[in-house]
Structures are given as C-alpha cells and as structure tokens.
Amino acid sequence: MVGNEAWIARIKVWIERDFPNLSPTGYEITSPDTIDYNCIAWAAEDSERWWWPDSQNIDYWPAGVPREVTLNAFMQAYQTIGYQVCDRPNLEPGFQKIAIYADAAGKPTHCARQLCDGKWTSKLGQDEDIQHETLEGPAGEIYGNVACIMKKAIDRENQSLSWTKG
Amino acid sequence: MKLIEITEASEQLAEYANSQEPIMLTRNGQIVAALMPFSGGDSEIDKLPSNLREMIQQLSLSEESASASSRQKTELETTFYQLVEQWKSETRGISSTEQLSVHPAYQQIIGMGRDVIPLLLRELEKNSGRWFWALKSISREEPVTPEQRGKTKEMISAWLNWGREKGYKW
C-alpha cells in the first residue's frame, strides 16, 4: 500500500467506479500513477517502456511481431520473452503466469501478471499499479474478460523482485 | 527643457520622457525633433496635426487587439485544461495508445492546432499524460528515434528538446 489515506481514498473512488468487481474480490493499490509504462509492459516486467502496437509507431512493440491489436500478436509479443500459452491460471511451482484480457470483439485490452502467492498485479493504464486477489477483479466493461493465459519457467537463480512484489 | 543627442541610449530618452519635461532631439548639434509631455486627453489630441491623430488612433486599436489576443489565449488555456481533465477522467485504466488518442477530448485538443503545442509541452514536462500522438499529429514531426519508442522518459526529453529548438516557451 502506498501514499496517504486521503490520496488512497480519492484514487479508490475512481478505481471502483471503473472496475466495480475489484472491491468485492479484493485489491490494494501498490504504487502511485505513472505514464512511464502500461499494463502490457508491467506484465513483461518492464517498467521503463509503454508497450502497444499502435499504427503511428509511437510506442514499443517487440521486433518481428505483427504491429496489430490482435490476441495472436499479443501472444507472440510475450513469446519473445519466453511465455507459452497454457490452460489454467492456477499457481504452478516453477512457473510465472500472465493473463491477457480482451474485449467482446476479441481485441486485447489489458494484461495481469501472477505473483508468487497466487495474487495478481496489474498496471491500470496511465495510472496506478494494483494487486488483486482474482483475475475476475479487473474484468468488466473496460477490460472485458481473460482471453488467454500464458506461462514461463522461472529462472530461480535470477528470480526477480517482480515475482514477489506487485 | 532637455536637449538630447539622438545617438544617446533610448533608455536615457525614456528616463527624460518620464520626467514630463519637453525634450528637444538633436543630431550633430541641430534640433531635429521636439517632444512635449502628452496626457492623452481628447482636448490635447484635437490640437494635434491629423497625421499624429491617426497614429494615436492606430496605437489604441493595436492595444485593443493585444487585449483581445490575451483574452483568446486565456480562453484557449481554459478549454485546453478542461479537455485534459475530461480525457484523464474518461481514460483511466486504458493502456491502448490508440484508444487514448482517439478519445473525443484528445481529438479536440489536436484540433486546436499549433497554439496548444506549448501547453502540450508543459503537460509532458509535468508527466501528466501521453501527449506524443497529439504533438506528432499537430507538428507533423517526430523527434523520437525508433530506439526510443515507448521509453517514456526519453520520449519526453526528445519532445522538450524539439520544443526548445523550435523556440516554443511553456
């Protein structure tokens, strides 16, 4: 948890307005807002770049991956850093997982990353990072639902802090 | 009455003018012009030659124009900041560069044209939002290198340097 109580209270009003499933399923704010990176980068443990395959070539997108807003392109983007598609979001020893959300048209909107205790961490657009108990928390009108789960083996020798911290 | 050789600094001339004394301007010892204190009252203007009266009228018109320009600038800033707040409020949680940039408030800011470039640079400097698409659309320039794409801090720095090079002040 970060910041003072007044700040947290104000931010929570906005978060719960936009993501009404978060409060009933449990969440907490874990960092102040920043425009440095977005959820797609945060899931990839990159806190310095904004990942998006925009048509104006403004933001970062992995080389060789189609620059298009499709689930397939997003899956390929995460494959470049070692993720593979898997079936279930459960906590699995030796693996780190991510969940790609997509809207009703199948367009990716968001990505969350699993932490070592089974909770999930998400960056909310240009705003705060949160830790949420379930994948259903951020689901809804803005992000749609989880469309794909991916996992990669954890390098235990060089396990990053991001695995343990949101 | 003061005598001023017109090779003297204009600051000195202004200083004498403030004293409300009549001033004679000379060149090489010859009087070339006379300056008289002037209050700007209608009775004084009526006594002036017609060409001077016209000059005074033009000056007062340009003051009105400067005042109108200042009003327009204030209105522009008010509208701009209203749109910024609307955009930030209505795009919370959005990660899609496209969705952020096609939002109606963001598009209206782009539609305001080059006048908002200093305001956008100011917002970028404050890290208030991703204004890269707007700056690129309005200026039709791209100071961000392919290697810097997505690296927000470096992108901000590239645009602020671009703004300075172009002479924008914010």
Sum this structure up briefly.
The complex is a heterodimer of chains A (about 170) and B (about 170). Chain A is an alpha+beta fold. Helix content of chain A is about 20%, strand content about 25%.
Walk me through what this model shows.
- The complex is a heterodimer of chains A (166) and B (170).
- In chain A, 22% of the residues lie in helices and 24% in strands.
- Chain A is α+β, with helices and mostly antiparallel strands and 166 residues long.
- In chain A, strands 1-6-5-4-3-7-2 form a 7-stranded antiparallel beta sheet.
- The longest helix of chain A is centred in the first third of the chain and has 14 residues.
- Chain A is globular, with a radius of gyration of 15 Å.
- Chain B has 170 residues and is mainly α.
- Chain B has 2 domains: 36 residues; 95 residues, no CATH class.
- Helices cover 58% and strands 9% of the residues of chain B.
- Chain B is elongated.
- The mean pLDDT of chain B is 87.
- Chains A and B meet through helix 1 and helix 3 of A and helix 4 and helix 7 of B.
